[in-house]
Design goal:
Distance between the termini of chain A: 20 Å
Largest sheet of chain A: 5 strands, mixed
Largest interface: A-B, 59 and 59 residues
Shape of chain A: elongated
Number of strands of chain A: 13
Strand content of chain A: 15-25%
Mean pLDDT of chain A: 94
Oligomer: homodimer
C-alpha cells in the first residue's frame, strides 16, 4: 500500500509512480493498493487498486502536480486509530506500506511500524521524503524542493525584467513565498542571480533564520533603491522578530498545532508605504500555486522523486528493511550525483533541518556560493510536461475501489 | 525610432525584435534608434542605437519578458512637451516612429503624428498593439493577452490538482488576476477546464462585467463546495458592485487618473471566512508576475507580437502609412489564422473593448463556447525559451547611447 500525506508538491506523484512501477517488478507483490487521503483512507478502508490503472496514467503521474491519491493533515492520536490501521492492514494482508510525506507523516509511519512490531504483525514500513520546505533531517534534500525553487527563481528573473523596465527609483516589488520554519524556499530565489552579478535581483531576501528588524529593512530598501532603479524583495512567510514572534502571524493553527502563516508580504508592503513616501510597493503572493508548478518543474527533482519511490520498494522487498525513510545522498565529486540511502524514521520524525547560517551572507539578505552550489544542482533540467491544446495534460487516476472487508468505523 | 510604453508584457520585446529585423531589410533606413522609457526618452534625448545590438540579443528579445527599452506611464500634456518631441525627432532626422503600447500610448502616438502633420514635418507614426488586458478596440486581440491567459490557465489547472487532493468540502482557493476595466484575463482562466467538463475548475469566475453581489457569491461558493470537495475561484482585480463601485478599491490613482486596484482577492477571502464558518480560504495573487511569465508563454502570441512589429515597419515604409495602429485580424475559417491590418490611431486611443456579455454564461460565473473558441487559439504552442543552468536565459540590451545633439531640457 502506498499513501500520500501533508501538502502536495509538483513531484509527490512521481514518487507514487516509482513505487507502483517498481512493485510490478516483484513477483511477491500480489496487489498494489493506494490509500485515499493518507491515513484517513486506511481508517475508512477507502482503498483503490493502483495495479488496475493504465500504464499511461502511471507514467503521467511523473509530471502531474498535487497528490493523486488525495492527502490529509489528520494526526493519528488515539490508540483506537492505530489499532484500526493494523486491523485494515491485516484484513487486506498489507505487508508493505509506503508513505510519502514530511516530518509529521514520517512520525505517523514510525508509530504504525512500531505498533506492528509490538503486535508481531509482519509489516515493512518505508517512508518517502516529500516537502517543498526541504526541512527533513538526514537527507541531503527533499523531493519537491528543487521544483519549487526552480519556479520561484524563474519567476523572480522574469519579474525583474518587468520591474527594471518600470522602475524609476520608486518601485519596490515583494514576492512572498512559502516556508513555515525555514527559509529554504526564499533562499532558493537567489538562483535567479547570474553568476558574478551579486547586484542582480533578488536584491533582498528575508529569511525566518534572521531576526527581522524594521530599521534594517527600511535601510536595506533605501540602499537598493539608490543603487538600482527598483528593489526586488523575496520574503519567506515565516519571518520572526528578535523575540522570535512572527511579524505577521495570524491567529489560526492547524491540526498539528503549527501556526498558519501568511501576510508577511502584506506586512512588508505596508512598511514600505509607511516609511518611504512616494515609493510604490507591489506584492506577488504565489500561495499554493508555487508547490504545484509542474510546468516549471525541475527534471532532476522529478527523477529523484521517482527514484525515491523505487528505492522504498526495493529496500522493503529486497533488503527486508522497515521503519526507515529513503534519503537522498549527494556524491562528493565536482559533478552532481545523487543516490538513495535509508535512515530510521525516528531520526526524521518531527525533526527540522534549518538553513545553515554559514550559507547566508553577513548582510543577512543574500546567500553565498555554498548555498548556490547546493541548490543549483537541484533545478537542472525541465520536467517534460506534455501539452495538449495549449495546456499541460495531467494524469487522473481512475480510482477503482477495493472492496471493503470490515464493518465501517467511526473516526 | 521605436519605443515601448505602459505595462510590460511577456511579448512586447518580440514586437521590438520584429521592428528591428524588418527595418534592416530597407535600404532607406539609415539608423535604428530606441527611446529609453517611451516618450520620456524622447523628451530627454535618451536614445540608444538598436542597430548596434548583436543579432543574438535581438533574437533573444523574442522570448524576453519586460520592456527591454524601459517603459513609462508619463502622459504628454503640455504643448511644450509635444514641441520637444518634434524637436528631438528633427535633430536626429527621425522619419519613422513606432510605439508599442495600450490605449493611452496610442493616444500619445496619435497626438505626435497630428502635430507633425500640422508642422509639415514628414513623419510616419505607426502604433503596435500591446496589452495583457486585451481591451484595445478594432483589433481581434492584443499581443500579450495569449501569454498571460496561458500562464493563468496553466496555473489554475495545476492548483486544481493540489486543491483536489486537500479539499474535504472545506477549502476555497482564490486566484486574483489583473484586469482593470475588463475581465478578459479572469475569463481566460476558463481554458483550464477540459472540453465537455463544465464542472472542472475554475468553478467560479468573477468578472468586472458582472455586478458583484455578496449574497450570490456566498450561495455560489456553497453550491460548489456541496458538489465538489473544494471551490476554485478566479477573480479579476476590478470587481464592481451594482452601483459600479469597486468592491475593494484603494484610494490611489495613477498618472492617467485610473484607480490603482488590488485587494479583490483579499476581499473575497474575507467574505468566505466571515460567511462560511469552518471553511478555509487560500489566496494566490500573481501580481506583476503574470504579465512577465515568458516561461509559460504562448508561441502564437510571441509570433504575432513579432509579426505586428514587422507589419508596422512595412506599413510605414512600403505603404507610406501613418497615424495608424497595426491590428490583428482573425480569419473566418475553422482553422485559426491571423493576419495584420491597420486602423486609425484615433479609433484606438482611449477606447476600451469590453468582454462581450453574450460570451458569459447566464450564471455570470462561467464562459461559454464562443469565448473558449476565441481564446483557445491564442494560447497554442509554447514559447521556445532557452534554458541555461536550469533557468530561462533572457536577453539584455547593450544600450549604446546615441550622442545627444540638443541642449538638455527640463521635463
Amino acid at each position: 500500500m502506498v499513501g500520500q500525506s501533508g501538502g502536495p508538491t509538483a513531484v509527490i506523484n512521481a514518487s507514487v509512480a516509482g513505487v507502483v512501477s517498481e512493485a510490478l517488478n516483484h513477483g511477491c507483490v500480489e496487489e498494489i493498493y493506494g490509500t485515499l487521503n493518507g491515513v484517513l483512507g486506511i481508517l475508512q478502508e477507502d482503498l483503490i487498486d493502483l495495479a488496475a490503472e493504465s500504464q499511461q496514467t502511471i507514467r503521467g503521474l511523473k509530471h502531474t502536480p498535487g497528490a493523486a491519491l488525495g492527502t490529509c493533515r489528520y494526526k493519528l492520536k488515539k490508540q483506537q486509530d492505530f489499532d484500526r490501521v493494523l486491523e485494515v492492514f491485516k484484513a487486506h494482508n498489507i505487508r508493505y506500506f509506503f508513505y510519502a510525506g514530511g516530518n509529521d507523516s514520517q512520525d505517523t509511519a514510525d508509530k504504525i511500524s512500531k505498533l506492528a512490531q509490538q503486535q508481531g504483525y509482519d509489516l515493512r514500513v518505508i517512508g518517502i521524503p516529500k516537502t517543498i520546505d526541504n526541512d527533513l533531517p538526514v537527507t541531503d534534500h527533499c523531493p519537491g524542493y528543487g521544483s519549487v525553487i526552480k519556479f520561484v527563481s524563474t519567476t523572480v528573473r522574469e519579474l525583474a525584467c518587468d520591474n527594471e523596465a518600470m522602475g524609476q527609483g520608486d518601485l519596490v516589488s515583494i514576492v512572498e513565498v512559502m516556508g513555515r520554519n525555514a527559509g529554504w524556499i526564499a533562499a532558493g530565489a537567489a538562483l535567479a542571480k547570474r553568476r558574478d552579478h551579486p547586484h542582480d535581483p533578488p536584491h533582498l531576501i528575508y529569511l525566518p533564520e534572521i531576526a527581522f528588524s524594521t530599521e534594517k529593512f527600511v535601510a536595506d530598501v533605501q540602499r537598493v533603491l539608490k543603487r538600482e532603479k527598483y528593489c526586488l524583495i523575496v520574503a519567506g512567510e515565516g519571518l520572526v522578530d528578535a523575540d522570535g514572534n512572527y511579524v505577521a502571524a495570524e491567529e489560526k493553527t492547524d491540526a498539528f498545532g503549527h501556526a498558519q502563516l501568511g501576510g508577511a508580504g502584506d506586512y512588508l508592503k505596508g512598511l514600505v508605504e509607511q516609511n518611504l513616501p512616494g515609493v510604490k510597493a507591489r506584492l506577488a503572493k504565489f500561495g499554493i500555486t508555487q508547490r504545484a508548478a509542474a510546468h516549471a518543474g525541475s527534471k532532476t527533482d522529478a527523477e529523484e522523486a521517482y527514484l525515491a519511490g523505487q528505492a522504498a520498494v526495493k529496500a522493503a522487498i529486497l533488503e527486508a528493511e522497515t521503519d526507515k525513510m529513503v534519503t537522498l545522498i549527494r556524491g562528493n565529486g565536482d559533478h552532481y550525483t545523487c543516490e538513495t540511502g535509508l535512515a530510521p524514521l525516528s531520526d526524521i520524525a518531527n525533526g527540522v533541518k534549518k538553513l545553515p547560517r554559514e550559507w547566508i551572507n553577513e548582510d543577512g539578505v543574500s546567500m553565498n556560493h555554498q548555498f548556490v552550489r547546493y541548490a543549483q544542482a537541484l533545478i537542472q533540467g525541465e520536467t517534460p510536461v506534455p501539452y495538449e491544446n495549449g495546456l499541460p495534460a495531467f494524469a487522473k487516476l481512475e480510482k477503482n475501489s477495493v472492496e471493503t472487508i470490515l464493518p465501517a468505523s467511526e473516526l
